[in-house]
Amino acid sequence: MYAFDFEKPGSIADAVAALKDEDAQALGGGQTLIPTLKQRLAMPSKLVSLTGISEMQGVCRGDDGAVCVGGATPHAVVAAEAGDYPALAALAAGIGDPAVRNRGTIGGSLANNDPAACYPAAALASAATIVTDHREIAADDYFQGMFTTALDEGEIVTEVRFPVPEKAAYMKFEQPASRFALVGVFVAKFADGVRVAVTGASEEGVFRWTEAEQALSGDFSAAALDGLSVPADGMIGDLHGSGAYRAHLVVVMTKRAVEAAA
Q: What is the DSSP track for the chain?
């Protein structure tokens, strides 16, 4: 690990100011960044911890009915306090192990946009709004590929707003050692249609399965997915499973999510 300065601001304004320093980097729960530093794959001059900013923590219900989660809120808190959105709470409860859930944050997960992370599927399927220190970004515009988002340099995820659907569920076929999603599918049924987001499968990161959305918007049942398939091209292939295997799992986990939501 290379040497670096450490700063723990108490407000969003102070964090933004600290991140203006050259090579400064924001630190959420550190579940990805700290191992990266230990392997000397990154060398920021300063780490700016966001965990001391009270205005970025906690879960509440917005005036519009959305469930609002502060960017520095640990997964364990989301699991315990997001009861107004049961599918989101259940997703958070299934991330990693207790140590990860008590340190990792929703903002850190979304900023990193790991292709096998769970929260991106929840945000995309829920049509969430990612709020930063100076703008709001629709989930459909936020995710731009593997480990790539619409965030600018030094921009902080301060809050995530989740519209609450009529029905929703998340089903994950997990890699047992890491509990990351080999394939995870979040299904959300709204009054104007169904959204289906898939994580863990594609080389491009989280994506919406629009063909399934169209079928489920007409008939919200697992049977509506019969005959549908996802191309294996562009799917992740590794020692845990081939692209064809992941493509098959997308259909299986989507059906399970629909059954759970219904």
A: ----EEE--SSHHHHHHHTTSTTEEEESS-TTHHHHHHTTS---SEEEE-TT-GGG--EEE-TTS-EEEETT-BHHHHHHH-TTSHHHHHHHHTSS-HHHHHH-BHHHHHHHT-TT-SHHHHHHHTT-EEEESS-EEEHHHHB-STT-BSPPTT--EEEEEEPPPSEEEEEEEE-TTT--EEEEEEEEEETTEEEEEEESSBTT-SEE-HHHHHHHHH--SGGGGTT----STTB--BTTB-HHHHHHHHHHHHHHHHHHH-
Is 104 in contact with 31 (CB distance < 8 Å)? yes
For the chain, how long is the longest CA-to-CA vector? Answer: 57
What is the bridge-based pairing of β-strands 5-7 and 46-49?
Answer: parallel
Q: For residue 116, which phi and psi values (nearest 5 degrees)?
A: -115, 10
- Residue in this structure with the two tokens 């407000």, named with its chain if needed: 11
Structure confidence by residue, pLDDT tens digits, 58-84: 999 999 999 999 999 999 999 999 999
- Cα 168 to Cα 125: distance, rounded to the nearest angstrom: 9
Over residues 105-153, the pLDDT tens digits come to 999 999 999 999 999 999 999 999 999 999 999 999 999 999 999 999 8
Tokens of 205: 């990161």
Domains and CATH numbers, the chain: 1-48 (3.30.43.10), 167-261 (3.30.390.50)
Instruction: Kindly tell me the burial class for residue 231, based on how many C-beta atoms sit within 10 Å of its own C-beta (0-12, 13-18, 19 or more).
Output: exposed
> What is the distance between the alpha carbons of residues 41 and 209, in angstroms, rounded to a whole number?
34
